Amino acid sequence: MNEQTPKIQGDGTPLPMSAHDFAEWGNEQVAYIKRIDMNGQIVFAVCAANGHQLGVMDNRDTAMAAAIQNDLEPVSVH
């Protein structure tokens, strides 16, 4: 299935997403930037849509830039 093509029922309404589909939704397009405490130091994690940590940066600007350089749309998590 193409990620851009939604699954449609006979009446034209979309099928409910499976837990797996939902977890993988946006994985290749979105990166979440999350402030975390790592061993007493505040750092910024770059995470895939499914929560998998892709990297850790010293500051938010660097985390945002890393996401953009890797063709991901950065989104902040508060």
Could you say which structural class the secondary elements and strand pairing correspond to?
alpha+beta
Which stretches are low in confidence, meaning pLDDT under 50 for 5 or more residues running? none
Fraction of residues in H or I helices: 10-25%
Largest sheet: 4 strands, mixed
| Estimated share of beta-strand residues | 25-35%
Please state how the strands of the largest beta sheet are arranged side by side: 3-2-1-4
Oligomer: single chain
Describe what this molecule looks like in 3D.
The chain has 78 residues and is an alpha+beta fold. The protein has a domain at 28-77. Helices cover 21% and strands 35% of the residues. The chain has helices at 19-24, 60-69, and strands spanning 30-38, 41-48, 53-57, 73-77. A 4-stranded mixed beta sheet has the order 3-2-1-4. It is elongated and about 55 Å long. The chain starts with 18 loop residues before the first helix and ends with a strand. The model has no long low-confidence stretch (mean pLDDT 83).
